[in-house]
Each structure stands twice: as structure tokens, then as C-alpha cells.
Amino acid sequence: MTVTTPTGHHLVRTMMCGLLMFAVASHTSAQQIPRAKAESVGMSSERLARIEAVMQTYIDAGKTASSYTLKPKERWM
């Protein structure tokens, strides 16, 4: 088994992604996000539920600890 250490470029990229995620989360938590029922904006609640099931498989498999999924439709969340 070979163990590799992350390169400088990988560390910078990882840190930048984390910083971007923090900035987006901070910005969106400070604002009120408009919400709507899926059908009222032309989406299907049933099909959106499939996303939840798929993300749960990643959590159950230990590939991620948790998940937040936003599916924007025009200006609605």
C-alpha cells in the first residue's frame, strides 16, 4: 500500500473550495431564501425525492457524513 501526501496545489485547491463553501453558506444564511412547493414552480416532488434517496446511499456507505442539496429553479429554492 502506497501512502501519498497531498501536493501544495491540492492543499491550496482544497482550502479555496472550503473558503468558497464557507462564504456561500454565510451569505445565504444572512438572507431569506424564497421557497415554493415543487409543483408550483414546474418541478416534481416525486422526482426531487429521488435525490434524497441517492444522497442517503452516500451517507450510508460512509462516503460523506451529511448532505445539503439545493436544486434551484429560476429564482426559487
Structural class call reads: mainly alpha
Roughly how much helix do the residues carry, as a percent range?
40-55%
Strand fraction equals under 5%
Average pLDDT works out at: 76
User: Roughly how many Å apart are the termini?
Assistant: 45 Å
Q: Radius of gyration in whole Å, from Cα?
A: 17 Å
Seen as an oligomer or otherwise, the chain set is: single chain
Characterize the largest beta sheet: strand count, sense, and whether it forms a barrel: none
SSE order = HH
Show unreliable segments: none
Count of helical regions:
2
Total strand segments: 0
Q: How would you describe the shape?
A: flat
Structural features, described:
The protein has helices spanning 8-30, 45-60. By secondary structure, the protein is mainly α. It has a domain at 44-77. The longest helix is centred in the first third of the chain and has 23 residues, at 8-30. The mean pLDDT is 76.
Could you outline the blueprint of secondary structure elements for this entry?
Blueprint lengths: L7 H23 L14 H16 L17
Brief overview:
By secondary structure, the protein is mainly alpha-helical. It is built from 2 helices and no strands. It has a domain at 44-77.
